[in-house]
Amino acid sequence: MKYFKFVFIPVLLGINFELCESRGINGGMGCAACTVTTGIVMHLSEVNNDTILATATKICRSLPEFAVERCLKTVTDLEPFITSAEAHKLFTPDIICYALHFCHVDEGEQYCNLFPKPRFIGFHQAVQVLRFEIAKMGGYRNVKSFDACTLPLLSELCTALYDWFENMEPAIDEDGDLFSTFNVARGTFWRGQDCNDTVADIHPGRLPLKSDTEFDSNCNGIYGVRSNDKVPWEKVLCEGIEGRGLITIGDSVGAHFHMPESWFDASLFSLDVVKNVSSQLFNEFDWPEMSFSTGFMNTTDPLIIKGKTDSIYLCLRERNLCNHRDYQNLARNGYSSFDHLNTSHKIARSMVDKPVLLLFELLGNDVCNNMPDTLNNMTTVDEFRFNILSFLKKLDKRLPPRSHVVLFGLVDGSRIYTDMAERYHPIGRLHSDVKYKDVYEWFLCMQIGPCNGWMNPDAEIRAATTKRAKELSEVLKVISNKEKFNNFAVHYVDGLVEEVFKTWELRGRQPWQLYEAVDSFHPNQIAQPLITEALWNRMLKYFPEALGSVNPNNKEIRRIFKNQGGH
Which parts of the sequence belong to the Saposin B-type domain (predicted)? Predict the structure, then answer.
């Protein structure tokens, strides 16, 4: 397992490079990564009163074992440039990345800059001067050609990782039942922990096998027989009380996308905050174990993620402890209604398993994109209706009878710009030189942002984006009212995020406190349990039948089975 963890970074670098090139212009995400990383290293050297070379070397040595050598080689190649007096006169992160060809100017495009431009020389001229200096030093041996997947022992692992990422299935799943005992890479942070990963018939959510008299087949920690009459505990404590599994299908809000601000703010940075970066990479920078839907784990390091955890899964579990471990999170960053057309077959559920509560949340990606002509690249009303109905029809063949599906209306993200634009981004706090509006402009120029419609200085474009979001929400509302399915009832909720903001501000708090600091687009760990509270109260009020029964035996379950094996 140690070997498996250490290869995360080089393998991910190897298999994701083409993806970095494919999004955006002028070098895309590869250019962006260079710009941000260079800025962070410069800030760290300043805060710690150290040289840039020494700072970069320390960061390299803190990486997982297999990444250290490649990182140090890159720093060594760049050493003459990093220590160049001429370079330091013009050394802005944007210019250095253009000079090194990580960034370039595509035909018909212009230079893009995140950090302020140099005061005494033009941007293009600065790039040319630095390229001349690099050439005098013998040039820079580009490391982009490196492919970790060609290394011995890694080719098969790369294939497995590609399958894991594409299919949203656990990377380690010995019996193929889509449940795992390993936490990251779509493992137990995403789906309930398997209690026997060698037998496919044993997994969370199933009906108990032979009443679980001898072993725990549904992994809820309840098995064996009562000593005085030999009646199975499953019959005594769970039978006749309708349970509920929880499934979330959605986007980065459901997956709970989060990047620690301590990675970007030099005053908060230390080597400790990146010591587990491989796990965070392998979780796709998502934290489903702390999300509003499937969260179950409390935060432990406020410099990494800060706030309490509450979730719909925990509410269902508290309502009926027989629901223990019965959760699946199939949300994916960037997914829209088009992407989820074929997600139903990734659900680990059969028609004879317990009913489920399925949360279908697509809060923005059907109106959010990174295209210059953002309005004409949004999902149309007709496309959206077709996609949702197609998905629900497929879902009707997968979910057990008496299940419930909750459709979430899209959010109104028009307030993002007004709430955040004039605040300083973590990467700009040291010198008070990069505000969120500067990040948004950089996103627009590079065509890499998550939502050109709402993260936009043009109020008319923001309003048009909200208009389309409301039109798509109306489609969901009509479907919930008119369409009928064999195996599940459909419900509709909207305005949850808006309700959370309103409640927060009525408490005298500031709206910026609910946004992810790095992207200013997603609800953070403070907001997540507030979404849980709003959604749970809404469901209790309008369709409590979707939540299953309250188990009167919960106290006895706790007495006998304690924490039921944990998570």
Answer: 27-107
